[in-house]
Amino acid sequence: MDAKHLLRTQLKHLERTMRGHDFSLEDEASCRALLSSTLYQTAQWIFAFHPLDSEVNILPVLEDARKHKHLALPVCMADGTMQFHPFDPQQDMHKSALGILEPERTHEVFPDHTTLLIIPAMAYTKFHERLGRGKGYYDRYLSVWRDAATLGICRSHQLQNALPLQAWDMQVDKVLCNGVFY
Questions:
Q1: Which residue has the higher pLDDT, 136 or 110?
Q2: Burial group, residue 162, by CB count within 10 angstroms (0-12, 13-18, 19+)
């Protein structure tokens, strides 16, 4: 078993043991910090995600972005790629085969220098390294779209001292954990 697979297994076990734990104070601290940051305030587009239970609850950020900015959410394609589509509150979200809520597939939008990409992960480091869920969607996406600002967001138990990395692993510009930017 390679180091990444082993760490993912350990983190999944930790998530199961923490199910039902109240992360609301930590999540709220991160949302407040993000909403008040220059990084967020200067962005015109927010490319984000609908959070799983094991991820930071960024629903307040999504709501603010929906009202005051342009908001796009990811759609995972069958070929292993990912696209972002505008979020329309008038349309229903649907659950993908991966269990992730996705917007309707209307038209793909692309990030540029006015975009902030908020990216989930199983773990991050203070050095902007990321461990995803193992499918490579974000690594492939970030390797193509490099103009946008990227922000990793995680909970305290997901912030690691070091992560096993490979050449194709993409880092983020900043990491936000428990209201603190790294």
A1: 110
A2: exposed
